[in-house]
Amino acid sequence: MRLAFEIALRFLKSGKGQTLLIALGISVGVAVQIFIGSLIQGLQISLVDTTIGSSSQITITSESDDKTIKDWKRTVYEAQISSPEIINVSPSLDGPASIDYENDTASVIIRGFILEDADKIYKFKNNLYQGQFPKNRGEAIIGKELAVKSGTEVGDNIALLTTRGNVITLKITGLFDLKVSSINDSWVVTDLKTAEDIFPTEGVTSVEMQVKDVFLADEISRQVAYTVSENNLKVDNWKDLNQSLLSGLNGQSISSYMIQIFVLVSVLLGISSVLAISVVQRSKQIGILKAMGIQDKDASLIFVFQGLMLGILGAILGICLGIGLLLMFTKFALNPDGSPVVPIYINYGFIALSGMFAVVTASTASLIPARITSKLNPIEVIKNG
What we know:
Elements: H1 2-14, H2 16-53, E1 58-62, H3 72-82, E2 86-101, E3 104-113, H4 115-122, E4 128-131, E5 139-143, H5 144-150, E6 157-162, E7 167-176, H6 181-184, E8 187-191, H7 192-198, E9 206-211, H8 217-227, E10 233-237, H9 238-241, H10 243-281, H11 283-291, H12 296-332, H13 348-365, H14 367-374, H15 378-384
Parallel strand pairs: 3-8, 5-7
Antiparallel strand pairs: 1-9, 1-10, 2-3, 2-6, 2-9, 4-7, 5-8, 6-7
Helix pairs in contact: 1-12, 2-10, 2-12, 2-13, 3-8, 10-13, 10-14, 11-15, 12-13, 12-14
């Protein structure tokens, strides 16, 4: 085996141009895999984070006549213990209202939260661009679009008309921008006690949750539904409510896998053909080695070792090239604000797997010339050489 390795290394060194060509072919394949795979992963993570990363992924609501969850503290506790995958839980009391501004009226939703719990889901504090978080009863924050069209600034009081005909005054302590116009345009966010003053009721209208792995939300929601004890509760999850988004993400994943498979097949065929030609070119040397007593097994191992070494070299070059392409993409493909068009997600496990696939593919490709080598007749090769 050691002899076969040394001969393989000598063959690679003697044909430096051919060796470099094969290694570059493998490296380009690996680089394409890493670039396309990381780009699509980054796009998916960015898309998921934008659409559901800062929102409720599992929501419990009531189907009772008044649409409220009566024993909500128990429901929150039961939801928390239903699965270790649940990381954030926030009760909410919501109700419609309207706000007058200039000569028009706008419909809004008053959302009462336990603010510290809700902030873990919606990231209100991180998205406040003016003012501060509500600290006292009767205070609230509103979105950017609602503030603009109503002419409201931090420190102003806004008058809200509820569906019961009550006029409620709230002091605006901050303005947020969650990057979702429908939320910025309609949410009035306050604490749960203030919402209870506005909508006197026993209970909350929903319990919202986030999970560690967003793609397991449907499975976890079934566990939550099984665990909660109050009657007439409905448990929804983002996957059931966003089938079109889920279909798009699946389509991206499938296209990524197909591209990577075709790249692997092209690398496999390219290496096999080049090494097969190498067998013909070196048939006289192989014949002489066999005539000197080298066994068929060792002769075959020469090309297996060649494939292995070419795979390792190509994988290393490809990983460097792929990471370089990703870094270049983040420098040149930019939004007007200077941020990358697609934030790149570097998954070291995926990069290592791509390199390993290249080594396995190159080693597999070498089996064809290895088989040809094992069948060479040394006498005929030397005689016709």
